[in-house]
Design a protein that fits this description.
Elements (H helix, E strand, L loop, with lengths): L4 E6 L4 H12 L3 E7 L6 H5 L4 E4 L3 H13 L3 E4 L6 H12 L5 E4 L5 H14 L4 E8 L9 H16 L19 E3 L2 E7 L5 E9 L2 E9 L6 H10 L5 E4 L9
Parallel strand pairs: 1-2, 1-3, 3-4, 4-5, 5-11, 6-8
Antiparallel strand pairs: 6-9, 7-8, 9-10
Helix pairs in contact: 3-4, 5-6
The structure holds nicotinamide-adenine-dinucleotide and ligand LLHOTIJI.
Ligand LLHOTIJI binds next to helix 6.
Amino acid sequence: MSELIRVAVLGAAGRMGATVVRAVQDAPDLELVAALDAGDDLARVTAAGAHVAVDFTVPSVTEANVHALVDAGVHVVVGTTGWDDEALARVRDHLADRPGVGVLVAPNFALGAVLTMHFARQAARWFESVEVVELHHPDKVDAPSGTARHTAQGIAAARRAAGLDAVPDATTQSLDGARGADVDGVRVHAVRLRGLVAHEEVLLGNAGEQLTIRHDSFDRVSFMPGVLLGVRRVPARPGLTVGLEHLLDLG
Ligand SMILES: NC(=O)c1ccc[n+]([C@@H]2O[C@H](COP(=O)([O-])OP(=O)(O)OC[C@H]3O[C@@H](n4cnc5c(N)ncnc54)[C@H](O)[C@@H]3O)[C@@H](O)[C@H]2O)c1
Ligand SMILES: O=C(O)C1=N[C@H](C(=O)O)CCC1
């Protein structure tokens, strides 16, 4: 039998971290060697001999965690959101000095959410209008969701590549926030509602027709196959990978 992958979980007391701890413990090819939360010393990850660390913490600490882990030669799977292009560029630069270390940052590990983003990018060039609505539990600290940002950025890139005009919108008078956030020219709306977990709709419109692409995560177990895939694959992917779609054979 091949060697078990030794895994550390950061944010282990959180909603996602606790679910990842259980998933790693249940996986026959993985071994949970450290479970850290706020206030714990990151040095425990290396002391435990972790090959891969999984970060589901908070947007304010995740980047610092990644740089420290990269310095220690530990591969990282990051699910924490709040990353912007500048923060990703800093990690990419840092990894250039650490050949052999891999970091995967993915705003959503649910396979259906990754497919939603993929289908939205495919559909984007054929529709005049598009807006993204994300719906989450009210304990979420960031808005819009990392998934919605990634979705809108992908749609915007597909529209640019197809030479489409700006999305039509005659609004000249509105209350602040009524038209949502502008992500690369795509409007993104964030709903927070008790009872929800993580949901997204991409609305695409043409004269006389609408296409709706919707994904629902009803339970955090929906993210686990993607997280475990990341843990298994990241050691063989040096450098920075952004998005789980790069690990799936989506064509
Ligand atoms: N990529 C995905 O598929 C996916 C899915 C769900 C959630 N998320 C993201 O994951 C993050 C966590 O979500 P959550 O719902 O589990 O939040 P949560 O608030 O339940 O958990 C965060 C945990 O991180 C801990 N923490 C804070 N600072 C820390 C530090 N320096 N070191 C270690 N732990 C620390 C907190 O104490 C808490 O236990 C959010 O950014 C969320 O958007 C991503
Ligand atoms: O519960 C959360 O918080 C989630 N955050 C991610 C995001 O911001 O996209 C993914 C879905 C759940």
